[in-house]
Design goal:
It contains 17 helices and 21 strands. By secondary structure, it is of the alpha/beta class. The chain starts with 11 loop residues before the first helix and ends with a helix.
Amino acid sequence: MDRQNLTLLTDFYELTMMQGYFKHKDQNKTVIFDAFFRVNPFGGGYSIMCGVEQLVKYLDELHFSSQDIEYLRSLNTFDADFLDYLADFKFTGDVYCIPEGSLIFPREPLVKVVAPIMQAQLVETAILNIINHQSLIATKAARICHAANGAPVMEFGLRRAQGPDAGTYGARAAVIGGCCGTSNVLTGELFDVPVLGTHAHSWIMSFDSELEAFKTYAQLYPNGCTLLVDTYDTLKSGVPNAIRTFEWMKEQGLTLNHIGVRLDSGDLAYLTKKVRKMLDDAGFPQAKITCSNDLDEYLINSLFQQGAKIDSFGVGTHLITAKDTPSFGGVYKLAAVRRPDGTFEPKIKLSENTEKITNPGNKKIYRVYEKDSGKVKADLICLEDETFTEDQPLELFDPLEPWKRTTLQPGEFTLREMLIPIFQGGKCVYNFRKTMEIRDYCLKEQDTLWEESRRLTNPHQMYVDLSQNLYDMKIGLLNQMSKQ
């Protein structure tokens, strides 16, 4: 799973189009494709970029094995000369990405591929598969962790994930989004993230008594003793037996620095308030209360509004499956074709739906921050040969309502280019970072959002603007197309 040849992780039509380019087009013609999305998932005001590391590994391993070639030959669709070409296939293009863990917004390029048309076409499906899934889970995790208001959130979803890859890479994405760790041991091994967990109800049920199960567990794991208290009756059995166990630990001279209880059922708001009082009255105010049981950001937010006494959360199904919005909706569209003179001819996709009309040309992104607060003001998509600086006034306008304009003066804003190279001339130039380092970066990124963009319902949508030159190019192409 760490290093795989995923070359055939592609839609069949990518290969049939490749053969068409091979037969009837200049297969070395350089093009630009943009991967982007149109709407934030979960009705949110932002998303989180994730999956770049796996994308880099995919591109680095991109080749057709002899087994792949023979399988394609067996389909009786591809000619021998095309299959001979695939046998020597390698990626030679440039790829730019928004850094993993960054805030991302609709309609801006997340991944820009500049490569010969056959290569750029082949990688479409895998790019979307990897970035769509992991960005979706990272975004869900960010929302859940924000609702938890600083309380640690553990990712517990492996058994409910749609398969091993979704469970493993999804857990990594959840950690990048803000989770403190995962129950998935393979994710821990592959990506060096904390693995967490306690015990199941079956542990309790396998003993003659709940108290015996608790004491045995406490003796085994005194430095991480969190007891599941809802197997039989939370308030009448589970918590009293947990308190007896903590008292026994004290008598045995065992540490009481890392003790707690977990609730996995019932009315968590009501129960945790009762449990907190019982633990405090018994002399164990340091005991933490952890809750699980089909939680999501809305339920966590509601629990706190009800005064629930919860120190940490375990979130599974709703996180790892992104249950309320199970797809990210990223797309991959042709933006430009290189002319013989080396310049790029912009391309645009039209649609009856205004939001589906693409932004043409070779583009880059500036993130605009308010200087005093450090908060994101807007993202500005412009042409690659445009340069904006902090010592010149910056005009921003709504590309859908271009008469709405504002001008930022020097000293009011800072700028940051968002697309970074990860492949140049087919060579990987990506600087790999540890997952927990990406998580730290992602948390800092989220701090640059206004709270109005982080609220769970009806959030403020971040402005994604076009430069005047890009806007004029787009309108010009639309006018040209309308006359055909």
